[in-house]
Amino acid sequence: MSSYGKGTRHHFRGLAVFAIVLVLVIVIVFVWMQSRQSAPVPEDAIYLYFVDVGQADASFILTDEGSVLIDAGTSDSAPTLYHTINTGGDTLSYLIITHPHDDHMGGALYILDKMDVQNIILPMDTAKTAVYKKFLGAVEAEGAEVFYADADFSFVLDEITFTFLAPLSDIGDTNENSSVIRMDYGGFSALFTGDAEKKSEKLQLEAYGNFPYGKLDVDVLKVGHHGSSSSSTAAYLKAVTPEYAVISCGAGNSYGHPTKAVLDRLEEADAEVWRTDLSGTIVFTIAGETVTVAGG
Ligand SMILES: [Zn+2]
């Protein structure tokens, strides 16, 4: 055998080894991607996340059939948010923005870039900021169904009903005009209030009743405006009667959120308080009648 032949054989063996390694790598990557994409949610349960996005808001609902993101945090926290919410795959059934402030929609551009978003529900209020204009451009490019939400909008995902309770009228303030969304899943309910404050709360009480067991009565309250004292009035909490109150705020934030006044009112209302600045991302698991909560 000539040295030329040996060289070819070695060369061939090298190629074969390379091909086997390549196939193995492809198989491993494929299996890894499949495992990331398969929904980790059991058929009879849902997960409700309050993602730690610092001094901002992002709530995420994951079922075995789809997912809903209510607010998307800031642009700075977007990679963290994406890392948390793409465990269910890169498709997002619904993106809801409660109002056009950076701490609620700043991360949405990143999410629109990374994920296939099927439906987008925009607030009635708009903003002239460069970030919001850029966001609206990205919404148009996404090719999703786009809705504008006011107080009579609702939709159903899997067995969960989402009902918009506010804004009931134009209060003339972007925070106060936040979309307020009620979620119902079996006997479980939650209320996402964006940055709505006492004027919106008063209108809701007038429209839905200022008593427990009404339309405002839920198990989990995403506390309005990061625990600012201008939200979560005693009258509102009396109607909402939250078993759990979740405050989304950044550790050591310059606004002093959550305020002592709101923490006192929540204690008075007998709510179990969870805070993203203390617990990180907070996850509720709802399985039948059982609700469990854990901090990250
Ligand atoms: Zn905010």
Question: What is the fold's blueprint, element by element?
Answer:
Layout: H1 3-37, E1 45-50, E2 59-62, E3 67-70, H2 78-85, E4 91-96, H3 102-105, H4 108-114, E5 116-123, H5 130-142, E6 145-149, E7 154-157, E8 160-166, E9 180-185, E10 188-192, H6 198-208, E11 220-222, H7 234-240, E12 244-247, H8 260-268, E13 272-275, H9 276-279, E14 282-287, E15 290-295
Parallel strand pairs: 3-4, 4-5, 5-6, 10-11, 11-12, 12-13
Antiparallel strand pairs: 1-2, 1-14, 2-3, 7-8, 8-9, 9-10, 14-15
Helix pairs in contact: 2-4, 4-5
This protein binds zinc ion.
Explain what the structure shows:
There is one protein chain. This protein is an alpha/beta fold. It is globular, with a radius of gyration of 23 Å. It has two domains: 1-37; 42-295, Metallo-beta-lactamase, Chain A. α2 packs across α4 (108-114) and α4 runs parallel beside α5 (130-142). It has helices spanning 3-37, 78-85, 102-105, 108-114, 130-142, 198-208, 234-240, 260-268, 276-279; strands at residues 45-50, 59-62, 67-70, 91-96, 116-123, 145-149, 154-157, 160-166, 180-185, 188-192, 220-222, 244-247, 272-275, 282-287, 290-295. It is built from nine helices and 15 strands. The strands form two sheets. It has an eight-stranded mixed β-sheet, covered by helices on one side. A seven-stranded mixed β-sheet has the order 7-8-9-10-11-12-13. 33% of the residues lie in helices and 26% in strands. The model has no long low-confidence stretch (mean pLDDT 91).
